[in-house]
Amino acid sequence: MESRASMAPTPGALPYYVAFSQLLGLTVVAMTGAWLGLYRGGIAWESALQFNVHPLCMVIGLVFLQGDALLVYRVFRNEAKRTTKVLHGLLHVFAFIIALVGLVAVFDYHRKNGYADLYSLHSWCGILVFVLYFLQWLVGFSFFLFPGASFSLRSRYRPQHVFFGATIFLLSVGTALLGLKEALLFKLGTKYSTFEPEGVLANILGLLLAGFGVVVLYVLTRAEWKRPPQAEEQALSMDFKTLTEGDSPGSQ
Predict the structure, then answer these.
(1) 35 near 205, Cβ under 8 Å?
(2) Which of 49, 54, 124, 195 would disulfide-bridge 106, Cβ 3.0–4.6 Å?
(3) What is the Cα–Cα distance from 131 to 137, expressed in whole angstroms?
(4) CB 230 within 8 A of CB 6
């Protein structure tokens, strides 16, 4: 009874928004695969279809999995904080690895076919997002999972970590939209304006990408949906502060 009483209640609308975000995210992944299969010949590594690995991996990694990693602290409200941290970090690791495969695929494809690299706005934004994402994970691991950072340092950095996490996610969605538009213009050219079926499907995919990003950011920015600190976590935090800074709970 006591453990149930200490559990934080889940806001009534939160599960519906989270479920809606997952429906949008899975639809985006499925539609990306359908677009590549129906109009781009499918996916293969050792062929001209290697390029198609890139958009699929980026959508799965830097959009869907990154969005889910950000939602971890809204979904798992009563689990141990350490468990939630590890799940948050692991999802980001999986997202990074999948995105790395997509990045290798496009550079390898360009090298094999003699195409130029890093000349478009999409490629510049993509490299920026990838580097920022890696740095965000590295610094987050150092501060929140590695036991070296002090309590006050973690507290000061946490708002920046949250802000840059949401910003990088937003940049990832925007970069995916840029890449989608670029791919359509390269292949369809002036036919894009004649409502070609591929263009219509890709436009719908773009709207779903934007919708997923908006729903995830909405869930993240609702202050009343934040994961509330549990009593034992607050006690552990005070113990950690005492160990790392020599302060006692009563000295504040």
Answers:
(1) yes
(2) 54
(3) 10
(4) yes
